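Risk register update: the risk of archive-format incompatibility is retired. Evidence:
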Amino acid sequence: MASATGTRNNAVSTLGGAGGGARGGAGGGRRRRLGGVSPLTLRILAVNVLALLVLLAGLLYLGRYQDRLIQAETEALATEARIFASALGEGAVNRILTAPSPTGDESGERFELAPELARPMIRRLAEATSTRTRLFDIDGHMLSDSRVLVGSQGRIEIRELPTPPSGDPVSRAINDLYTRLIDVVPSREGLPVYREEPGQPNPDVERALVGEAAATVWRVDGAGGDPELLLTVAVPVQRYREVLGAVLLTRGGGEIDRAIRSVRFDILRVFGVALLVTIGLSFYLAGTIARPIRRLAQAADRLRTSHGRHAEIPDLTRRGDEIGELSGVLREMTDALWTRMDAIERFAADVAHEIKNPLTSLRSAVETAERVRDPRHRDRLMAIIADDVQRLDRLISDISNASRLDAELSRAEPEPVDIGLLLTMLAELRQTVAATLDERVAAGDGEDGGIRPRPPRVVLDLPAGERLVVPGLEGRLTQLFQNLIDNAVSFSPPGGTVRLTARRSGRSVKVVVSDQGPGIPDGKEEAIFDRFYTERPAGEKFGTHSGLGLSIVKQIVSAHNGSVFAKNRHVSDGTIEGADFVVTLPLL
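Archived output:
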């Protein structure tokens, strides 16, 4: 900026944009839900318990386990049926001689089951087991049933009574609920329903009568209508491979259900313990995650709604985890916001002060012009008014540019910038301008034309063959070095030299802008970077500069994570021969 060049002043890197000082911001009327049950706690609990419930459902299904139990029980029942059939085929058979053939060559014999021998044998064999045993002849008629006793008193039929309920009401309710669920987990709806109807042969018996062993798993309605398993196995009774009948063994699935019930209740006990542990760990996890986050949210809300600085973000950095990191970042962000707000307030006060001076001068000149009758004095007052108006215009333009600068630096994405090429371009531009001025002076357009003869030369000193590339905004870095060069030129004598030097320093690049001016007043090495600070060469017209040039320099350097400082350059006898402005920027 031409109007901001040549100024030694400082920038506080906090020139806010519009609305920067508003405490609350957009959405301030939207109240956050910061009380009540934590939704994050409920989600943590739900996720953990849901995973445990899915595991429980898988364990309680036990379909494969039930299939293996049924298979083992069926194989045992089939072995038992084969033993019964073998015993009946050997000890409960009558031998019957057949009539000779019509030719009279030979006579035959055949065998048939003897009910009077089979019944006591079946009763003896079935006493040692809980299996119902029935014997059928070759025509499918039942000859014997282990549950039916035939004696002098008539027929006696034995039926198993359901187990009476035991335990307290709670246990019975749990057992009843479990019984209702076993038909669902795993489902028994696909099993055939077992019914005994007179005159209707059993399918397994029909297969056994043709010489095949058969086994089926049935579903029956137990006491109270609850589904129960029933296993049937039928094997043929043979004598010398001749099928004489079939023996049918029937056994309830009570043992299977009890085994599955035992496993399931063991799983439920383990699940109960695991559920308690999971709930405890979920609340612990929620306490270490949700509660600190809620504290941070509540502190941020208090900070948003408060009118002072008594509210602060809790310091949780000692946790050493992401929440501690979040706490530290929020604290740093809060401090940065307060710093920016303070800087905005100071900047507003400084702007008001700087604008007030030309306005006061302008007001005095206007009031005086009304009473002045001398045309020469009036012309002089009008010239003062014009200077004050121009000074105000320059000041407002520079303030506007400085305000936009902060917003631009915070939004723009950095790009690779070659410092060597940038300084070369600026040096060549200055040399071109100096050559043009020399031509105009040589043509006689010297002091009368208002052009200073022999302006300071800009000399560039770069390392050969070394690229100095930094991440940044090329336009703002150009403005940075342009302001430093303008400042050095304004303090250097006519015909002097302004030297630009760039060198690599570790992981940074160091650029030095040296002039041949009177140097920096003692103790003002840092103050020259303050906003609106002005220390101009003797004889320069007052109000030519706004005092924001070096402030913008420091602001741009800070936004690029660099540093800038100024120092005087001395000769051997201690005399000041000029000032050096040193800028350090990180390399890409």
